[in-house]
Amino acid sequence: METTATALQTVHQYYQYFNERNWQGMLSLLDEQIRHEPNQGEPRVGKQLFTEFLKGMDDAYEETLTDMLIFSEPSGNRFAAEFVVNGIYKKGEPGFPEAHGQSYVLPAAAFLEVKDGKITRVSTYYNLELWIKLVS
């Protein structure tokens, strides 16, 4: 059985890898059946779909997370993360404004679950209308 501290370390490491743009490191912390619930759209289930998502994000955005706060509930399996996304919009995506290197600063949050040392769920939330306004 893993301790809350170990699970919390896993979540911290996940975000450290994100800020380092170490996608392989991030993927190494995910369960094979990771459930990724994005702000918009259908959930993705499985590491392969999450890998494809990361590739698309890496192509279109360059982001660093700051002001990170991570909270756990009493069982130590579920976590909430609050942070600020500091980004550059590098490549436009269908349905969004044209990209030309716009920078943005956007508050966001995520909920994660950890089981047996692996992250089994990541649900991310931010204000899409505000992001569109910031890059338009």
Give an account of the 3D structure.
It is a single chain. The chain has 136 residues and is α+β, with helices and mostly antiparallel strands. The chain has one domain (4-135): Nuclear Transport Factor 2, Chain: A. The protein has helices at 4-20, 23-28, 47-60, 128-135; strands spanning 30-37, 44-45, 61-72, 78-89, 102-115, 118-126. A six-stranded mixed β-sheet has the order 2-1-6-5-4-3, with helices on both faces. A hairpin with a 5-residue loop joins strand 3 (61-72) and strand 4. The longest helix is centred in the N-terminal third of the chain and has 17 residues, at 4-20. The protein is globular, with a radius of gyration of 15 Å. It starts with a helix and ends with a helix. 15% of the residues are buried. The model has no long low-confidence stretch (mean pLDDT 95).
Give the domain tally: 1
- What is the level-2 CATH architecture name? Roll
Distance between the termini: 48 Å
Q: Radius of gyration, rounded?
A: 15 Å
| Mean pLDDT reading | 95
Q: Counting H and I runs of at least 4 residues, what is the number of helices? A: 4
DSSP strand tally: 6
Main structural class: alpha+beta
Widest beta sheet: strand line-up: 2-1-6-5-4-3
CATH topology descriptor: Nuclear Transport Factor 2, Chain: A
- Hey, roughly how much beta strand do the residues contain? 35-45%
pLDDT < 50 runs, ≥5 residues: none
CATH top level assignment: Alpha Beta
Share in helix: 25-40%
**What is the string of SSEs from the N terminus onward?**
HHEEHEEEEH
Coarse morphology = globular
Could you give a short account of the major beta sheet? 6 strands, mixed
